[in-house]
Amino acid sequence: MWSTTALRAHLLASGLAGDVATSREASLRSYRAFAAGDPRVTIGLDPGPAWSERRLIALMAAKCGVSADPRCVRGDDVIDPELTLRALSAFAGRLGEAVRRRAPVLFGTGHPHRLLGFYAGLADAVSAAGCPVLTPAQGRSVDITTRFGVRTLTLVYVRGVALLRDGTGARGGVHTHSPLPVRLALEAAAEAGGPLPGLVVGDHGWVCGAGQLGIEAIGLADTDDPALFVGEAEGRVSVAVPLDDAVRAGSYLPLTRYVLNRARLSQ
Asked: According to the lineage, what is the superkingdom (predicted)?
């Protein structure tokens, strides 16, 4: 069991919060692109019209703890660990409530090399508690547009967590921000006449794509991923947890234990 004090220390020591590796320059580029309506950054969310770069900076300062000064344009971003802990508690609360309601849960990630273990631990516990973990569209193809052109990828599930793989046979998965995988999964579930998820747990397009369609969604997001925090501010994402989403994979496992403890689930 991880106490709040121990997890706070871990967040800082691992770089999940505190001084993080995401640069201010990268975050500001994302805020400008989001304000311009770039779908590569809105990742499935159809935001309201009022999100200027300045307003996004203010939102991200409130939600993540980054600098609220628009004149700060260089250096590494900072995430307030207290905001991470607060959001993780809310995340655990929504997950625990879904399990108590026996609401079907869909897990998906665009960060399989980093976050698969975090989500898989949650999926194992949710399933063990008797709550359905959905796996729609297993093996189906989806075309994802990248800066190198269109790639045809396959939706697969590993320990109950959806991710994309290419046709090379390589282990792991493909990093993506796209909302197309969650749309494919939801369409497949509807076509099959099976249950739709009562909760989607993930990151990037998995959260924003589901939230935009009116399905409750919770997830993790870095300081250069404003869409999840805008979705939370607009009421389409239930919880967005601020943290660095690209540190060593093992660093996220204490978060799994913390969330399961808070959600009153056993791993």
From this structure: Bacteria
- Looking at residue 3, its pLDDT comes to 87
| Measured distance between the N- and C-terminal CA atoms of the chain, rounded to whole angstroms | 11
Are 5 and 232 spatial neighbours (Cβ–Cβ below 8 Å)?
no
From the list 45, 194, 10, 124, the residue with the least C-alpha distance to 56 is 45
What type of residue sits at position 1?
Answer: M
Do the Cβ atoms of 114 and 173 come closer than 8 Å? no
| pLDDT band (50, 70, 90) for residue 222 | very high
User: Where does 1-267 sit in CATH, by number?
Assistant: 3.40.50.10490
Which pLDDT score is estimated for 103?
A: 98
3-state secondary structure of 189: helix
User: pTM here?
Assistant: 0.96
Cα radius of gyration rounded to whole Å, the chain: 17
- Give the per-residue pLDDT at 145: 83
b/e 107-137 (16+ beta carbons within 10 angstroms → b) = bbbbbbebbbbbbbbbbbbbeebebbbbbbb
Q: Given the DSSP bridges, would you call strands 18-23 and 76-79 parallel, antiparallel or unpaired?
A: antiparallel
CA dist 189 and 167 (Å) reads: 24
Task: Judge contact between 237 and 217, C-beta under 8 A.
Answer: yes
